[in-house]
Amino acid sequence: MKIHEIAQKIINTENISTKSFSNMQETDYGMLFYNEDNTDSNDANHAVITKYDENADFDAIVKEIKEFYLSKNLSPRIYSNLIPGQFEKIKDSLIKNGFEFEKHNKRNITAPAKNLMKMY
Fold this sequence. Notes:
Elements: H1 3-18, E1 23-26, E2 30-34, E3 46-49, H2 58-71, E4 78-79, H3 86-96, E5 109-110, E6 118-119
Parallel strand pairs: 3-4
Antiparallel strand pairs: 1-2, 2-3, 5-6
Helix pairs in contact: 2-3
């Protein structure tokens, strides 16, 4: 299995999981997750751009995402979808629309054979 296929499976799993606690609106360019009853949750309220057509108007897409969330009194957020080169394609559009960038180091918790919890 190629890395792009693995990344797509991870994305699909995350999106299915998010739909269990959030509403989802599909668009031509991706998905808008929102939960107006849980406004503090970043995971419940974010967009994912899944289609990166070279001819896409990313300025219009980012503006539409921003307006969607603001119309619901939610903070506009766009999550990365692990596609290599994604950020570079939309970076200028994000800056034009006032987005800031955050990078989070993820910690994974696994259970070794002896059932002891280990944090990485």
